[in-house]
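Q: Could you fold this chain for me?
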Amino acid sequence: METTESTGKPKTMPMGKSMPGLTEGLALMHAGEKARFWIPEELAWKGQKGRPAGMLVYDIELQEILAAPETPPDVAAPAKDAKTTKSGLAYKVLTAGTGKDHPNKWDKVTVHYSGWTTDGKMFDSSVTRGKPASFNLNQVIPGWTEGIPLMVVGDKTRFWIPKELAYEGKPGKPQGMLVFDVELVEFEKLPEPPPPPEVPKDVAAAPKDAKKTDSGLMYKVLAKGKGGDKPKADSRVTVHYSGWTTDGKMFDSSVTRNRPATFPLGNVIKGWTEGLQLMTVGEKTRFWIPEELAYQGKPGKPAGMLVFDVELIEFK
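A: Sure. Below is the predicted structure, expressed as structure tokens.
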């Protein structure tokens, strides 16, 4: 069924997030102990589609117990001695590091962290997974993008991140103010990304010289390409792009990440699938994509008509 012996690497898992039988069984073990468990179906996968059926048998060696971090005593509100930035981010250094330099807002960092909601419920922790997390600072919630550059390597800092700098009420994400304990393990200096593109002057509505397809997609060529073949619906394309809502708010851009995006045309919104088939390599085009060809009101996605500037770099 499954084994860690083939990879030679032990598996780290949080208690309570696996099948009930494993959660109960592991709680009976001590570090260094080996045990065999016979787990009845009602404590295993309960007939879930795609999962092993019936009673399951596991041989387990418990190598190490990683204790979950304790809930901070000041999780409900920022501590009195916490500092607060102009944006509303509150923070307090718990342990001073030995580093001298600070990461920039576009650098790649490696951190250990744990996160709680203000009622003391821990929703995520790299500590309990036993592995630090690495990511680019310009690809996380604004509170992290702002807060971690205040740190040096070795710093352990507690952040109280207000809702508007966290997940802003997005469905499926932790709600309200979030509290994070973060240790900056290391960081990698990356080239500064280019400035964000200017908001198109015609972002609110397509101009008179824009073309319109039968579906309602509107577009205007900003720079001609090299000519030749055009992508098809099943092509894989590489593009640089930026996207705005009609009020001029940019919600995504490969340009500011300084990294083009590659994807199959059949796996994106309908407006992209249709629109990029109109382009040749090297062409830059502005698209006004009506909501029914965009995200169709899906929660957590940009709403209404969307405007994209797209440069087709290559396709296969």
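A (continued): The chain has a mean pLDDT of 93.
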